[in-house]
C-alpha cells in the first residue's frame, strides 16, 4: 500500500511539472496598446582648433636708423601703445625701437648678411595663423623661449644680446605691452589669451586669468581664422666693451608657438 502512495505522488509531481511548462509555453502575456514616434535630436557639430606658422621677416629697428619706414603686416602698420615700444629704458636709455606716431619704423634686412653692432635692435616679425571655432573656446598662445634664452646667455659668444617680445592683432595694434623674454627657460611663456568670436561667445566668462582677446573682427565676418603677429626684438647692449662678441653668432633659431585650450571647469558627468 505504501508503494501505491509513493507512485501516486510521483505521478502527481510529474503532472504538475508538465502543467507548469504548458503555462509557460502557452503565452501567459497579452498584447496591449502601444504607440511610437520620434523627435529630431539635431546634429552636434564640433568646432575647429589649429595653429600654423606662416612667415618671418626681419627689420633693423634701431632708433637712429635714418632710412626707416613703417613696418607693415598684411597692409597694417604695427602700432604700439604710448610708451610701449620702449624695451628697457630704465636700465639702458639706448634700448628702444624707432617709432613715429606710435608706429614701428624699420629697414628690412636679411639675417646672416646684416651685422648687428652695439646699440642696434633687430626685430623678427613672425606670423601665426590661429583658428578658433567654438562658442565657448578660449586658448592660450605660448612660446618656447629656450632658443632666445640660449642666445642671450651662451658663455662663448652670445652674451650681450637681450630679447623682448610684443604681440599684435589683425589690425596691427599691439595687444598688451612689450615684455622681456628673460633669462630663465620657460617653454610655456604665455604671450596672449585669445577667444573665438562667435554669436554666443560674448557671454563667456572664463576666469583662468588674463584678458580675453577676440581673434576676429568685431562684426564677426571671419571664419574663425586670424593672424597673430609676434615680434621678437634682439637688442645688442650698447655698453659692450672692447671687442667682446665680435663675429659672434646669435642663433635665434625657430620660435615654437603652442596654442592650448584653457577652461576653468567643465561639466564632467563621469565624476
Helix content, binned percent: 10-25%
The number of distinct helices, counting runs of at least 4 residues, comes to 2
Let me know the average pLDDT.
75
Uncertain ranges:
203-211, 216-220
Q: Cα distance, first to last residue?
A: 71 Å
Give the count of structural domains. 1
Main beta-sheet strand count, sense and barrel state = 8 strands, antiparallel
Annotation, overall tally of beta strands: 14
Strand content: 25-35%
Structural class: mainly beta
Radius of gyration: 35 Å
Question: H/E order of the elements?
Answer: HEEEEEEEEHEEEEEE
Q: Which overall shape is indicated by the principal axes computed on the Cα atoms?
A: elongated
Quick summary:
With 271 residues, the protein is mainly β.
Folded structure, characterized:
With 271 residues, the chain is mainly beta. It has one domain (48-261). It contains two helices and 14 strands. The strands form three sheets. Strands 1, 2, 5, 6, 7, 9, 10 and 13 form an eight-stranded antiparallel β-sheet that branches. It has a four-stranded mixed β-sheet with strand order 12-11-8-14, with no helix packed on it. Strand 9 (161-168) and strand 10 form a beta hairpin. It is elongated. Residues 203-211 and 216-220 have low confidence and may be disordered.
Amino acid at each position: 500500500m505504501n508503494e501505491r502512495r509513493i507512485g501516486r505522488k510521483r505521478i502527481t509531481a510529474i503532472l504538475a511539472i508538465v502543467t507548469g511548462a504548458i503555462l509557460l509555453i502557452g503565452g501567459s502575456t497579452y498584447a496591449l496598446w502601444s504607440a511610437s514616434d520620434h523627435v529630431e535630436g539635431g546634429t552636434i557639430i564640433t568646432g575647429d582648433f589649429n595653429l600654423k606658422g606662416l612667415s618671418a621677416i626681419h627689420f633693423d629697428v634701431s632708433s637712429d636708423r635714418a632710412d626707416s619706414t613703417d613696418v607693415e603686416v598684411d597692409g597694417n602698420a604695427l602700432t604700439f601703445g604710448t610708451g610701449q615700444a620702449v624695451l628697457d629704458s630704465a636700465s639702458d636709455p639706448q634700448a628702444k625701437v624707432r617709432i613715429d606716431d606710435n608706429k614701428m619704423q624699420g629697414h628690412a634686412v636679411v639675417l646672416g648678411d646684416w651685422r648687428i653692432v652695439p646699440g642696434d635692435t633687430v626685430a623678427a616679425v613672425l606670423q601665426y595663423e590661429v583658428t578658433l571655432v567654438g562658442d565657448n573656446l578660449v586658448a592660450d598662445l605660448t612660446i618656447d623661449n629656450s632658443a632666445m634664452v640660449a642666445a642671450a646667455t651662451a658663455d662663448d659668444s652670445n652674451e650681450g644680446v637681450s630679447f623682448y617680445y610684443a604681440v599684435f592683432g589683425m589690425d596691427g595694434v599691439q595687444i598688451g605691452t612689450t615684455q622681456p623674454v628673460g633669462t630663465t627657460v620657460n617653454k610655456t611663456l604665455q604671450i596672449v589669451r585669445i577667444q573665438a568670436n562667435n554669436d554666443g561667445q560674448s557671454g563667456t566668462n572664463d576666469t583662468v586669468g588674463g584678458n580675453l582677446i577676440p581673434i576676429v573682427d568685431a562684426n564677426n565676418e571671419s571664419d574663425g581664422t586670424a593672424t597673430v603677429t609676434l615680434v621678437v626684438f634682439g637688442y645688442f647692449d650698447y655698453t659692450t666693451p672692447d671687442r667682446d662678441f665680435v663675429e659672434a653668432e646669435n642663433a635665434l633659431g625657430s620660435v615654437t608657438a603652442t596654442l592650448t585650450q584653457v577652461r576653468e571647469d567643465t561639466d564632467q558627468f563621469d565624476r
